[in-house]
Amino acid sequence: MNETLSSVPIRKEWDIVGARQTGRNWAKDLGFGSVDQARIATAISELARNIYLYAKVGEINFERLDSVPSIGLKITARDQGPGIKEVSKVMKDGYSTSGGLGAGLPGVKRLMDEFDIESTDAGTVVTVIKWTRI
Amino acid sequence: MGSTKSGKQDYKQLLMEYLETGDESVLYRAEQFSKNSIQQSISPDEIVNEHYQSLLDIIPDMDDRIKSSFQFLIETMISYGMAYQEYHVLREKQIELRSEIGVAANMQDTLLKTQVPQVDSLDIGVKSVAAKEMNGDYHHFIIDDKGNIGIAIADVIGKGIPAAFCMSMIKYALESFSENQIFPKYILDSINRVVERNVKEGMFVTMFYGFYDVDTNYFHYASAGHEPGFILRKESHEFEEIDAKGLLLGVESEVTYEEKFTQIEKDDIIVLFTDGVTECRYGDRFIEQEEVLDVIKSFSHLPAQEIVDSVYKYFERLQDFELRDDFTIAVLKRIK
Ligand SMILES: Nc1ncnc2c1ncn2[C@@H]1O[C@H](COP(=O)(O)OP(=O)(O)O)[C@@H](O)[C@H]1O
Ligand SMILES: [Mg+2]
User: Fold this and answer.
1) Quick one: which atom of ligand 1 is closest to the CA of A123?
2) Does position B327 have pLDDT exceeding 50, yes or no?
3) For chain B, which end, N or C, has fewer CB atoms within 10 Å of the first or last residue's CB respectively?
4) pTM of this structure
């Protein structure tokens, strides 16, 4: 069962902090530990910053996934920006402008348990899920 | 990515022991623990968290500010963890690449293999060693039906994979000449056009081509900007430079090369090489040509293959077993 929790619009750099805070609060509510909270917040940072930098505006959605035995936090970053032309290239380690820091989308993929991108010239949707540890 | 339950138990156990005893042996086990964790690619933020969780158990009434400070530390370590994970992946990729280059280098060896000709009048030896995985030097022998011998020595300016590609092309061009076309001038003129047409700007090749006529014992040669060769004359026991000049291959399509010849007497030794031999470095100092020739001379009583092997060993050692450039030397000794 999925339950939409909330949605945070990204328009200015400050909104990145808001999205982090919201994501962390939901993560805490759903019972994630300290490390996972920090990882979720970092993943949100990366996704929100990509929206801010490359698409200008967009939003981050939070959903709760009820499954057995763990609970999931599903985060969807959605924008109507120019899209990513070659997703497979972007997903290679070392491609991001942060090269060597391990950040960027490959970093997000590693921080989370599930990861998916759909990108066309009409926009980008990145979906990630983190499950509580049992 | 998650650490194991037993890992957590171990950490807490170690920490408790250390708090009690302050013993060096516990620190030693902590060292083992961290190596183990690295092997299981447990990232630094996990370790900080384990420390925090263990402390919560050991000191239940911990100050709230200390608790928050751990939250802060974990948050700060997340990026280190990400960099660490990326490092892992890149390292694996590097290992993979290296093995792929190894396969390519083997393939190059097979592709560029040339047989040292066996003839009565000449004792021939050759040694070619790559500085990196792929060799940018190349040598090639051709023998015609009368037993005359053609030898090409080439050096691509530039190293590594592009140089190796270029060499394969030159080899196939060389092999396409029929046996009665193996005269130096003809070969360099033709190869030059092939290189000029097929190799992109900024890549140059030097080549020396020699043709040994077994009937007359004349050595015909031409050079496209290649390192000069030498003849160690038996009579004088002195080196004579093989004087040949010409433009590098691939610079201009309409170059014609000059061909010369010289008489080779019994026990004269023809020595050809690439600049990896003459530009050996010893610390900060280039080895003088003089010195290279002296070394060759000191081994000149040996059979041809032993001469080149010994020269190589000598310079390998002099350069602390780290070649800076591809190294190729060929020796042709008239023995009859
Ligand atoms: N939402 C997006 N819209 C358009 N392009 C994007 C988006 N997210 C990422 N990109 C493109 O993908 C590239 C890689 O992104 P990322 O992995 O976050 O690394 P970085 O942002 O450091 O370059 C970016 O440089 C950008 O060109
Ligand atoms: Mg980014």
Assistant:
1) 3
2) yes
3) C
4) 0.69
